[in-house]
Amino acid sequence: EDVPSQTFDNKDYFCGKETFPVYESVFTEEGETIRKIAIEIEKPPQIEIHVWTIRKGILRHFYVEKVSKREFEELPYFKLITRTTLSQWKIFSEGEAQISQMCESRVCRTELEDLVKVLYLEKSEKGHC
């Protein structure tokens, strides 16, 4: 059988799974760091933005917002950091929920950094998938 090539509509694939662009925005205002992690989803076409407000290393506020691609393009500060699969994004979202509870009363800088690393896919070697 022919193995289908991995050039489906200009989309990237990782081990046969579709990947989605992930963006990050980090800025500081009034002593707080606002860190946003966003993923672009095809169906429905929208951007899911996870917003963390961090003061002195403690996660003060966390919420998720969804915007259209057009609205997202008008937002400042975002840069593409990686592409990820939906299964990795699910792991990220579940970890985020746990961290948001855990980090209300203590500093969680390394936990947040480690959580973002989940989104980066390991480069697959031949036969790795």
Automatic annotation (TrEMBL):
Residue ranges of domain Chordin-like protein 1/2 C-terminal in the record: 10-129
Protein name (record): CRDL1 protein
UniProt-annotated location(s): Secreted
Source organism superkingdom: Eukaryota
Taxonomic lineage from the root: Eukaryota, Metazoa, Chordata, Craniata, Vertebrata
Entry GO terms, CC: extracellular space
Main subcellular location: secreted
Ubl conjugation recorded as keyword: no
Molecular function terms from GO: BMP binding
Keywords, ordered alphabetically: Developmental protein, Glycoprotein, Repeat, Secreted, Signal
